[in-house]
């Protein structure tokens, strides 16, 4: 086995309004440190967001967490900071001007850092063409490479720790449910529901209440709870248990990254949102419904349909039902009707998701691909 080459990495993360940006950056930073023994420094402009998903986080300017140096990224950036050998600009977040100037100074000395723009996940065809392309910064001449996560071998892959599937398969479901105070009846369908605000929840709750089989839905504290309360005409809070016909709603606390994985493994169907939780749902190998982050000009719907083409190609008999429900969930459609159609095919859907997860896991993961790419090109 070749000796590990230790490089210094700076990852810059600007939190927009959810946990996806920091979720992706934090997983990547931890994996580079733990599995590739890299020296990683994570710069984040909202330390509170990291604290929500990783409770050991302190409100400190500098700290070591899980082998990663975490630094607060202030607008007035410390001009004495020297750039790392590899610089990851997550989701085109624009690194600080003074840091860029220091990178340019390094280039003038013949030691330019390797500069990567880590892009958002997409299954659109153009991603394969743009993955690995470079652009030259007009003022400094520094080259920046665009690195696209994705679902095909011509992209950068998906974040996946080396042991995650083994941990999933060894998971003690009953023990974890008991630890969390979750006690569904034996024949119930256990669902996790993590989503943005969504008017489509009204019709879906009606369908679940009329379900021929018991449904126990776990709702981590978050934005969808307001929509649920509006649909029910009452105020549910964290810890509440609501029973209506064949539906049990249980509002659970916001969970950490680590516990969220277990929630996905424990449930029969997972409603997820954004990018980070969507990728984790792939590794759960369970039926999944994606609430994609809304973008201008309906760009999110193009991304949604691109993924659906990949996801449903191996299962033509399920394509129409999955497509219709996913679109209804994202476009406030008739989720009651489309849910009742889709759930009839749950056994086939389950089998497909297990195969889908296994198939995706055959490709190198995102951290591995970044590591290999950067080590080949760094000096």
> Strand portion, in percent?
15-25%
The proportion of residues forming helix, as a percent range, comes to 40-55%
Query: Helix count?
Result: 15
Oligomer type: single chain
> How many runs of DSSP E, i.e. beta strands?
14
Please give the radius of gyration in angstroms: 22 Å
Through-space gap between termini:
21 Å
List low-pLDDT spans. Answer: none
What gross morphology would you assign?
Answer: globular
Mean pLDDT: 95
Largest sheet: 8 strands, mixed
Which structural class do the helices and strands define?
Answer: alpha/beta
Give the H and E element order.
EHEHEEEHEHEEHHEHEHEEHEHEHHHHH
Spatial strand sequence of the major β-sheet: 3-4-2-1-5-6-8-7
Question: How would you characterize this protein structure?
Answer:
This protein is α/β, with parallel strands linked by helices and 379 residues long. The chain contains 15 helices and 14 strands. It has an 8-stranded mixed beta sheet, with helices on one face. The protein has a 6-stranded mixed beta sheet with strand order 11-12-10-9-13-14, with helices on both faces. A hairpin with a 6-residue loop joins strand 7 (134-136) and strand 8 (143-147). Helix 9 packs across helix 10. The longest helix has 17 residues, at 20-36. The protein is globular and about 70 Å long.
